[in-house]
């Protein structure tokens, strides 16, 4: 039976994530299988040693699946960041994945002809301006946006963050932290 809202099911989402991850990390299947089998082997050996095989095998299967899922999630996230890194709007995509409590603008608040941009994020710490592009080109955009934002919210702290690969900039995978 097909879903009425057009969204893929959970299994299809996991399969698609696996395919995307395998593109940049071709050994992901072997790594996950090795983790699962290694953890299961440890639990089986412990089951033989202590005479609790009937209890430790299901526990080993569950633990192996849990650890493999955690490793898969981290490697999939790293793969996604490596695939979008360097593209215009990558910082905005990462900022939109922030947990609740943050408001991120749909469009950049400042943009230039080189497609360098500044994003505005509002949360409990205040207003955060996140730039995307080389620091030499976005510094002026950050200063202008800081002045513009300070006119509307004069008593709120405004934090500036530069994302990118240059010195003094925050790399894309660390941006959502």
How would you describe this structure to a colleague?
With 177 residues, the chain is an alpha+beta fold. Strands 1, 2, 3, 4 and 5 form a five-stranded mixed sheet that branches. A hairpin with a 2-residue loop joins β3 and β4. α2 packs antiparallel against α3. The longest helix has 32 residues. It is elongated and about 70 Å long. The chain starts with 9 loop residues before the first helix and ends with a helix. The mean pLDDT is 87.
Looking at the chains present, what oligomeric state does this protein adopt?
single chain
Which spans of ≥5 residues are poorly predicted at pLDDT below 50? none
Major β-sheet annotation: 5 strands, mixed
Number of helices: 6
Summarize the structure.
This protein has 177 residues and is of the alpha+beta class. The protein has helices at 10-24, 28-50, 53-84, 90-96, 135-152, 172-175; strands at 103-104, 110-111, 117-123, 126-132, 158-163. The longest helix has 32 residues, at 53-84.
């Amino acid at each position: 039976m097909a879903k009425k809202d057009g969204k893929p099911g959970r299994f299809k989402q996991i399969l698609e994530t696996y395919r995307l991850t395998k593109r940049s990390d071709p050994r992901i299947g072997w790594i996950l299988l090795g983790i699962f089998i290694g953890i299961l082997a440890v639990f089986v050996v412990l089951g033989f040693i202590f005479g609790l095989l009937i209890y430790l095998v299901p526990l080993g299967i569950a633990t192996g699946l849990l650890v493999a899922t955690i490793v898969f999630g981290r490697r999939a996230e790293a793969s996604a960041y490596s695939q979008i890194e360097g593209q215009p709007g990558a910082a905005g995509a990462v900022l939109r994945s922030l947990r609740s409590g943050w408001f991120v603008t749909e469009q950049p608040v400042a943009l230039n002809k080189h497609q360098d941009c500044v994003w505005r994020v509002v949360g409990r710490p205040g207003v955060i301006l996140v730039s995307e592009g080389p620091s030499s080109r976005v510094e002026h955009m950050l200063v202008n946006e800081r002045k513009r934002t300070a006119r509307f919210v004069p008593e709120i702290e405004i934090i500036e963050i530069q994302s990118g690969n240059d010195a003094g900039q925050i790399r894309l995978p660390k941006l959502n932290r």
